[in-house]
Amino acid sequence: MDLAGVPVLVTGASSGIGRALAEALAGRGARLAIAARRGGLLEEVADGIGSRGAARPVVIEADLSRAGAADELAAAAVAGLGRVEILVNNAGAGLVAAQAAMGDDEGARALFETNLWSPLALTRRLLPELRASGGTVVNVTSSLQSVPIPLLGYYGASKAALAHLTRTLRHELEGSGVSVLEIVPGATETAARDVGLLPWRGRPMRTPPPVSPGSAAEAIVKAIERGRRRGVHPATSLLPLELPVIGRLVARIVTPRIDLG
């Protein structure tokens, strides 16, 4: 796929992987609508892209933890771009909480609204556009879908659900002309890495060095351009996906090091 001139909606574009991805797509010539909760940061991203000679993205402030926000975002993206040919469901919320304490409280429900229900709502709303153009749905999940680490269950479960629905969506859209791509990031250097937020007993567990958001974004762009069905970055994150016993073993090793109260 040649991305020059292609209209793309990227959610969660104010920081981290989403910001780096917006910059990488703009560098390929894509026309962008970028969305996130923090409008000021989105404006900075758009100004930076415009200052490098690319088309300035359409900026849409949207809180995808709110039910109904996805439909509003889809309408705004189509109004701003004319159409959407690639939808990147990258926005994600994290949460460090014990299930026994939180249950289905407001925070847990907001996480699932952002990580699961909003991607589904955006996909449904934009499918007519995507069918007409032979477009692509890109869902960003996580390697934690296969690693049941204590206190990260809400995040991992939401990403596991999105991963499963991504695979079934691919089958449901077989022959429609719409491509479905799952992106599975491993440890990435962002402002709020889950490993740093856990209440460790003593020092945090040593983990492999995280990759940069820029390298993750480049891997995503290449996966889109090459029409892949799944992209995993770094490649070592394939291990718990293909051999789930490894993910369960990691969780068993990590659990005694976490202060569960």
Automatic annotation (TrEMBL):
* Matching SUPFAM superfamilies: NAD(P)-binding Rossmann-fold domains
PROSITE patterns in the record, alphabetically? ADH_SHORT
Q: A Pfam family for this UniProt protein?
A: adh_short
Which keywords does this Swiss-Prot/TrEMBL entry list? Oxidoreductase
* Family per similarity comment: Belongs to the short-chain dehydrogenases/reductases (SDR) family.
Q: What's the protein name? A: SDR family oxidoreductase
Species the sequence originates in: Actinocorallia longicatena
